[in-house]
User: Which sequence fits this backbone?
């Protein structure tokens, strides 16, 4: 069944499940979404529910925490035949960041990376593989922090350890 046929038949998700069910007990795409109520997650964040937001959220939150770029999410959506433009992916990610659902990471200047784990934690960036992984917080020790200007407070400390293969 094509995406258009699914929409015409009343199925509200490209994955074949109803948004009202929010993928509860869905086995048709268990690699993509779990029984997590994605619609409720968006509603709880104060977001209006749209087909594209729900389908992108299913990709993002359905299989544990992950690091990704907008281009990678777009490619994944295309693989699942979700009709979404790259601009919509970028806009949706910015809305998810503003709503506190994901974090935007300052890894590379030219490319934005995102993280579904919004807790405070640190990262390893593997430059040769263009890959990000979390650092176990117990392995990081932050010593003395710099003095901050008057009227300012430190809101968060983020460490990114950049790695590359020896000899490159």
Assistant:
């Amino acid at each position: 069944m094509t995406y258009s046929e699914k929409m015409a038949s009343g199925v509200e998700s490209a994955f074949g499940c109803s948004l009202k069910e929010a993928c509860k007990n869905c086995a048709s795409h268990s690699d993509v979404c779990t029984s997590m109520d994605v619609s409720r997650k968006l509603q709880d964040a104060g977001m209006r529910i749209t087909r594209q937001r729900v389908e992108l959220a299913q990709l993002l939150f359905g299989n544990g925490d992950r690091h990704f770029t907008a281009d990678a999410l777009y490619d994944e959506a295309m693989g699942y035949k979700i009709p979404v433009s790259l601009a919509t992916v970028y806009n949706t990610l910015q809305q998810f960041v503003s709503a506190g659902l994901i974090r935007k990471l300052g890894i590379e200047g030219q490319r934005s990376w995102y993280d579904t784990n919004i807790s405070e934690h640190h990262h390893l960036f593997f430059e040769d593989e263009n890959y990000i992984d979390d650092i176990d917080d117990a392995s990081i020790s932050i010593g003395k922090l710099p003095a901050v200007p008057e009227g300012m407070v430190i809101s968060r400390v983020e460490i990114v350890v950049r790695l590359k293969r020896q000899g490159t």
User: Anything to note?
Assistant: Residues 1-36 have pLDDT under 50 and may be disordered. Helices lie at 3-8, 38-44, 51-61, 70-79, 86-98. The first helix runs from residue 3 to 8.
